[in-house]
Every structure is written in C-alpha cells, then in structure tokens.
C-alpha cells in the first residue's frame, strides 16, 4: 500500500510541474532570420607574374648554362625596371633526364636533359606589366603565364564587403519586422562567409604606330575586382 502511494504521488507531481525546457521555450522571444549581401569593387594595384625558362639539351652542363644565363638576364631586367628585390624570387634549378623509348632495342634511351627554373615577380606598378612580360620573352623566358591581378588592400576590402552585408541584412530584418507589426531587437546569431574576389580580365592594347615602325610594347588594361560577402543573421522580435 505504501509503495503504491509513493509512485502515484510522484506521477502527479511530474504532471503538475512543467519542465525547465518547456518554461524556457515559452519565454523565448520571437525571432526573424535574414540574409544579406555586400559587394565592394576596386581597381587592382598589383600583379603576380611567373617567368619560366626551360632548356632541353643533350648535355646537362649546356642546359644548365642556358637556363642560368636567361635567369640572370631576367633578374637584371627586374632591377632595370626598379622592382624591389624583396618582390622577386628565383627558384632553384629543376633537372629531369629526357628519355625516349627505343622500340627495336625495347628499352629507354637517354636523349639529354631538361633543365628549368622560374622567376616569380610581384609587381606593384601595373604600368610596367606590359614592359616586363614582353621584355622577359626577349631575355629568354619561354614559359610566360598570364598575370594574376590582385589588390594590396584585399583584407580591408573584404571587411568592407562584410560590413555592407550586415547592413543589408539589418534592412531586410527591419522590413519584415515592420510588416509584422514588430521591431527588431538584439542579434541572437550571426554567420558570415566571403567568396574569392572575381579576378579582372586584362587585355592587351597595342598603341597605334606608323607603318614600318618597330612594334610597341603592349599595355595591359584591367577591370575592377569584386569582393563579395554574405551573412545570415537572427534577430529578436520586439512588440511595438
């Protein structure tokens, strides 16, 4: 008899007293979740250029000498253009034996060696980009990729885009809250993400020259860079 009374009393107590989670849920204010986007555009002010030299020769010393001489000319070119040495990096030599397959003998035969080296330049004066790339070819670079344009203010521009995204999200939240007859309160959650900037395309534009004149060095014209940020924000809703 005593055991039954105790069990029944415990059951009645559990039904009569709401749990802590139920109380917390009932007291939780209404919320509104929104997203926002911000964009900032800017002109690039720097370029990263990789100038490669490769030589294929029967003898290793000849290939190495050819590549070393070309790299020395490239380094001299960067100094002539006034590029700070801290923005120039010359990688070490890479050597690879050059084999071909002899079908009759059914074996690999050494034909020579391929030696390569790269000069990586971070150019802070885009007016010199065309001159650098074209004169690099004349100096012996035979692997010249496109320039990667960038901004020295990248972090600052990314943060500006984030700030604009938050402002956009707040305006969205205020619009929804006003339509619902409420106001937004404190921020309950905030998440942000950013996309890699859209890299501008540069195009070559040779200057008009009279007939018979030597070819002009190409100039490179770049468009704007676009930095994009997105945020998702959850605000409390406050009754008017």
Task: Characterise this structure.
By secondary structure, the chain is α+β, with helices and mostly antiparallel strands. It folds into 2 domains: 29-44 and 152-205 and 218-240, Protein of unknown function (DUF541), domain 1 (Translation Initiation Factor IF3, 2-Layer Sandwich), CATH 3.30.110; 46-150, Alpha-Beta Plaits (2-Layer Sandwich), CATH 3.30.70. It contains 5 helices and 11 strands; from the N terminus they run ααββαβββαββαββββ. The strands form 3 sheets. Strands 2, 3, 4, 5, 6 and 7 form a 6-stranded antiparallel sheet that branches. It has a 3-stranded antiparallel sheet with strand order 1-11-8. It has a two-stranded antiparallel ribbon with strand order 9-10. Helix 3 packs antiparallel against helix 4. The protein is elongated.
Question: In brief, what are we looking at here?
Answer:
By secondary structure, this protein is α+β, with helices and mostly antiparallel strands.
Q: How is the biggest beta sheet arranged?
A: 6 strands, antiparallel
Structural class by secondary-structure content: alpha+beta
Write the H/E string, N to C.
Answer: HHEEHEEEHEEHEEEE
**CATH first level of the largest domain: which class?**
Alpha Beta
- Radius of gyration, in angstroms, nearest whole number: 33 Å
CATH topology of the largest domain: Alpha-Beta Plaits
In what range is the share of β-strand residues?
A: 35-45%
Q: What distance lies between the first and last C-alpha atoms, to the nearest angstrom?
A: 57 Å
The overall strand count is 11
Shape annotation: elongated
The residue ranges in which pLDDT falls below 50 over 5 or more consecutive positions are 1-20, 204-216
Give the assembly state of these chains: single chain
Mean pLDDT: 83
CATH superfamily of the largest domain: Protein of unknown function (DUF541), domain 2
What is the second-level CATH architecture of the largest domain?
2-Layer Sandwich
**Proportion of helical residues:** 25-40%
* Number of separate domains: 2
**Count of discrete alpha- or pi-helical segments spanning 4 or more residues:** 5
């Amino acid at each position: 008899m005593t055991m039954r009374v105790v069990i029944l009393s415990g059951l009645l107590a559990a039904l009569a007293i709401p749990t802590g989670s139920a109380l917390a849920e009932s007291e939780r204010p209404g919320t509104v979740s929104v997203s926002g986007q911000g964009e900032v555009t800017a002109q690039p002010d720097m370029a990263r250029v990789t100038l490669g030299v490769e030589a294929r020769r029967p003898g290793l010393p000849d290939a190495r000498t050819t590549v070393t001489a070309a790299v020395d000319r490239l380094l001299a070119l960067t100094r002539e253009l006034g590029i700070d040495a801290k923005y120039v990096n010359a990688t070490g030599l890479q050597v690879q034996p050059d084999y071909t397959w002899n079908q009759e003998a059914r074996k690999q035969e050494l034909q020579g060696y391929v030696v390569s080296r790269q000069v990586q330049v971070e150019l802070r004066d885009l007016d010199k980009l065309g001159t650098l790339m074209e004169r690099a070819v004349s100096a012996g670079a035979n692997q010249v990729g496109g320039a990667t344009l960038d901004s020295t203010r990248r972090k600052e521009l990314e943060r500006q885009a984030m700030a604009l995204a938050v402002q956009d999200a707040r305006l969205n939240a205020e619009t929804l809250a006003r339509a619902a007859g409420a106001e937004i309160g404190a921020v309950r959650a905030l998440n942000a993400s950013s996309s890699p900037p859209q890299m501008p395309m540069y195009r070559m534009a040779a200057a008009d020259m009279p007939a018979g004149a030597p070819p002009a060095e190409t100039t490179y014209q770049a468009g704007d860079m676009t930095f994009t940020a997105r945020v998702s924000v959850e605000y409390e809703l406050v009754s008017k």
